[in-house]
Amino acid sequence: MSLSTQPPKEPFRLGQLLSDTRYRSITIQVVALVLFALGLWWLIGNTAENLKNLGKTFSFDFLGQRSNYDINQRLIPYDSTSTHGRAALVGILNTLLVAAMGCVLATVIGVIAGVLRLSKNWLIARLMTVYIEGFRNVPLLLWILLIFALVSESAPAPRAFANGDANMILWGTMAITNRGIYVPSPVFTHGAWLIAAAFVVAVGVAAWLRRKSLREQAATGKPPLPLWQAAGVVLGLTGLVYLLQGGIVFTLLFVVQLAIIAAIFIYVRRFVRPALQYVPSQRASATATALGALTALLWAIYISPALWHMLTGVFGTPAFTPSITLDVPALGGFNFTGGFNVRNSLVALWLALSLYTGAFIAEVVRSGIVAVPKGQSEAAAALGMPASRSMSLVILPQAMRVIVPPMISQYLNLTKNSSLAIAVGYMDVRATLGGITINQTGRELEGMLLMGVFYLALSLIIAAAGNWFNARVKLKER
Amino acid sequence: MADPKIAYVRETMLPPQAPPGNDTGAVSWIRENLLSSWLNVILTVLSLWLVYYVVSHVAPWLLRGIWQADSLAQCRQIRDEMYGAGANVACFAVITERWNQLVFGFYPRSGYWRVILAFVLLVVAIAPVLFAALPRKMLWFSLVSPLLMFFLIWGGTIWGPIAVGLGLAAMVGAGVLVTRKRGMLLGVLVAIGVGILWFLNPFAIVWNGVGGAGNPLGFLFPIDSLITRIGDAVAPGLALPRVLSKDIGGFTLSFIIGIAGIALSLPLGILLALGRKSNMLIINTLSVAFIEVIRGVPLIVWLFTASLLLNYFMPPGTNFDLMLRVIIMVTLFSAAYIAEVVRGGLAAIPKGQYEAADALGLDYWKAMRLIILPQALKISIPGIVNTFIGLFKDTTLVVFIGMMDPVNLLGSIRANTAWNGIYWELFLFVGLMFFIVCFLMSRYSIYLEKRLRREHR
């Protein structure tokens, strides 16, 4: 005797497609897919017919044609004989430039404002609230236009530098004018590769020393090689090569640099080192090394030449010139020549994007800090940690878990908002590829498509990088 | 049990004493809140200096502002007479003189009452949605009012909006009826079918595609245009003078785009979020692709797409209103953001809630409507309102495709010889208007969060 637990098989009925949950989801999906395909087919069909009526074809040939227009702000060589493709690349680099600058400054502003809004100081907390609410509730476009007006009207004209009404800053190397900020640009001559090679070697040596000391720390608990020593190796080696290329003035320069390094040494030893001891993780050390290397790079290509520029003013031009010098802007006629002109459009866009996004980041940071249970800061206080250290060692690492995901979307927003460059005439990708190129060639469809794909790819890359970072910093839970 | 070793035990409580003078009142407050550490002292001094600097520069400019003048030159003349030559004084006369333009754009002067009436209707329609204390019956008016507002602002015959309203009612009615008898899926399909029958010309579509010219079945026009024609023949007087979209500008434009976008993007965003959480592969993939593509590209690019490219995607000869295109783009854009916010809310609902809904035997839509979505939406309120605030601020971007929004008017007023050279006053005004609206929205979201808080804290 056997009892069948299987229900008797019913023949399939058409009604089951709607009533039976097993088949219904398939029905819904098939209907959705058919509707989607029909819609797509309709759109593409329309487009094809419209293009045919206009006598246009779909091709990206225009990217190879001569562009015939100039771009005033550019990071790579370009002139009006270049191709539209190169113009698009200039625009893309400009977009990336302002987005990267904006993300850095917005983070700095946002973290400071977010922490200060929670300050016990009543006045500063209110001021930060005013800043945050003010920037968050007014359209970004208005801020961009306003800051553009501010930078172009409040700064002195180049004329004012000639008659002494205004002075260049930073040892006479930088001028802030209403036509933009003139900064020195580094000039690399034939021997520059020696310094570059020395720099690369020094970074390698520093990284090797650092890793060795970290392994030692893991084994014995001895504190690792501090940041200043790693940076010192880089600076010392690079500086030595730099020194060898110069003459007497350069010996002086080296002494000055050594004095500054010594000052940094004392500072680091007194204030930073005790704090670093609490950071056992390898990541913090790697970050510190990277920061040190960056500082050294900045030192080698900017600060050293700037000092050299100042010293040559005192001691005269030495017999040997180093291979990296600065092209310092100088007043010639009615305007500055030489150096690198950071136009007001870039400055205004950068500041506006940073201040605007900074207000949002401040709220992100604040909510992250508030989300850390109060018991954590109380525990830190009970252990005798001062408030500043408990913030950096106890509160912020835990707040990161809440802060990082919305922070990524703020970076995304900033990047996309950089397309508002159109308001101040900054030549980003929308102005070159999506603006003048489209107007000149009449290729709206292709131009917009390329631009859309660029922004989409950029967004996806930022999101992916952010998620990767988030996976690394988030609390490991079981 | 008195211990003989203790000589004296107090038996009455001493009255509490006032704290020392240093610990109470203004002095202590200042010490605690402004001067608690050296860093705080420095910060306090810095902020005081900043406040003084800003106030000393802005207050005279603001308070002595001149409100009545015909041009900047006249404004300066008045200033020189009152405060001496070259004094730092605002010239708000530009706002009083150009008030109508900033609010209505180039809307015909004789029709201002229509915009104002539409705004009043908007307030009446929106009130029961925002505040639960008002009678629920007012919601019926909220449903009808969009058509009324459309009629008031754009004008034309009233039969068009009536036909559209009847068509929507027919769609919903047929959909609900079939859903009750035969289930959701068939209900939706029937509703879509009724919509096609009512608003499009199905026979012509089969023959030539939408709007195809010269179709042999042209005598079968859609029902809504039939109603409009009959209505116009019977009662031709029920019409207002037409106003073109390009004449609508200023804050009216910002409000129309903003509110239409807000109203349309919420339901669409919720549907997209449900699609993204769905475990049906195709629905899920389509939703994810839509959300990511829309969010990955800046709104400006979408607006340019709307103004430059949309004609390519439509059948030849179609040309629909730029404002409608912008509203569609803005709606799609913010719907993608709302979808992500709502998805976060859905993810925060404990799994037990879904299981409880299943245990009660509710189907998918009932479970969503009665159990999951109310909780998820409550969680996502701040994010949704933030998206709305962003949407309203983004209405300023239409300036780049040549629409007459307040930022565009800023430029055109400054280009006028009478007001050439004026800047900060107009900026302040436009910025302040946006600030007020956005700030009220964020306060409302806080109020709503408090009202909906059910758990005990």
UniProtKB/TrEMBL annotation, chain A:
PROSITE patterns: ABC_TM1 (PS50928). The chain crosses the membrane at residues 26-44, 87-116, 128-151, 191-209, 225-244, 250-268, 288-308, 347-372, 448-469. It is a multi-pass membrane protein. Residues 92-466 form the ABC transmembrane type-1 domain. Keywords: Amino-acid transport, Cell membrane, Membrane, Transmembrane, Transmembrane helix, Transport. GO terms for cellular component: ATP-binding cassette (ABC) transporter complex. It is found in: Cell inner membrane; Cell membrane. The keyword Signal does not apply. One of its GO terms (molecular function) is transmembrane transporter activity. InterPro entries: AA_ABC_transptr_permease_3TM (IPR010065), ArtM/GltK/GlnP/TcyL/YhdX-like (IPR043429), MetI-like (IPR000515), MetI-like_sf (IPR035906). Belongs to the binding-protein-dependent transport system permease family. HisMQ subfamily. This is General L-amino acid transport system permease protein.
From TrEMBL, chain B:
It is found in: Cell inner membrane; Cell membrane. The chain crosses the membrane at residues 38-55, 111-131, 138-156, 162-178, 185-207, 248-274, 286-310, 322-342, 379-402, 422-444. It is a multi-pass membrane protein. Keywords: Cell membrane, Membrane, Transmembrane, Transmembrane helix, Transport. GO terms for biological process: amino acid transport. GO terms for molecular function: transmembrane transporter activity. GO terms for cellular component: ATP-binding cassette (ABC) transporter complex. InterPro entries: AA_ABC_transptr_permease_3TM, ArtM/GltK/GlnP/TcyL/YhdX-like, MetI-like, MetI-like_sf. Residues 251-445 form the ABC transmembrane type-1 domain. NCBIfam families: HEQRo_perm_3TM. Belongs to the binding-protein-dependent transport system permease family. HisMQ subfamily. This is General L-amino acid transport system permease protein. It comes from Ketogulonicigenium robustum. The gene is aapM.
